[in-house]
Amino acid sequence: MSETEPVPVAAAEALNLTDSNGTQALNASAKFVATPEGTALAYGSLVFMALLPIFFGALRSVTCSKSKNASDMPETITGRDAARFPIIASCTLFGLYLFFKVFSQEYINLLLSVYFFGLGVLALSHTMSPLMSRIFPDSFSNKQYQLLFTQGAEETKEEIVNYEFDTKNLVCLLISSVVGVWYLLKKHWIANNLFGLAFALNGVELLHLNNVSTGCILLGGLFVYDVFWVFGTNVMVTVAKSFEAPIKLVFPQDLLERGLEASNFAMLGLGDIVIPGIFIALLLRFDVSLKKNSRTYFYSSFLAYIFGLGLTIFIMHTFKHAQVRDRGS
Hints:
It comes from Perca fluviatilis (European perch). The protein is mainly α. The chain has helices spanning 9-12, 36-66, 79-102, 105-135, 167-186, 189-206, 212-232, 235-242, 255-258, 271-289, 296-319, and strands spanning 75-77, 144-151, 158-166, 207-209, 248-252, 265-269. Strands 1-4 form a two-stranded parallel ribbon. Strands 2-3 form a two-stranded antiparallel sheet. The chain has a two-stranded antiparallel sheet with strand order 5-6. A hairpin with a 6-residue loop joins strand 2 and strand 3 (158-166). The radius of gyration is 21 Å and the shape is globular.
């Protein structure tokens, strides 16, 4: 797996589809039973939120592939990276499982919160940047800045960091920091989703498969990964219940009853968005390379993803698999 910022894909894949039918909503002994309306709203919202970063991330990946800006350069996943990815994801998942078994869950999540706060601020800022460029008027004084770190003397000077940004980027960073503080202090599900959507969109935009065969290797390897860790062990469920980080999208099933203070969530891991998303983005770039008006491969794969995700949610809900777990905040 290629190590790429700002999206921790190996960590993201550690969480798959997880549904919450919350216990702890009313008291320790009472179990919350979601209404059909609440369940449908939660599942429908998760599907809609999953489609957003894939669609817009794929569009942005086309522009990203042509960019000469170092900060927007994509990370290319090769066949070797794809083959190693399930192994690295498994080590990451099992490592987290051992950490939660050995160390205090509170301190681990505190450390992870600080780490994802920094990543989330950068990811959300990068996501908002094109939007801010359209919002600000042409008369806005947009000053250019450069962050440059070098190593060595004049003749042997080597660039370590060379990042160019402007005033609009600073405004995006400020807004993202406000969201980050909100998430850090309250762990509110809306703040979690803003960070999660930003991670997913950046992942689809900046992670590029070099060809279709690499995508098939990646998806095939992760199929085996899912079968083993989801159906063969309780590792993924344990990590999903313990891991407090914005690497999942959540939506409350009790929103109609409790409003924004709802606490019984249906969840969808970012791995179920980013991994198929980078394959769909590859097919869009292939469509563009054909220089035709049609986007046959992109729309076909996009519709197939919608069908697959909907079918997965239906099966998980119908058969009440072990991944269906409570999450009260």
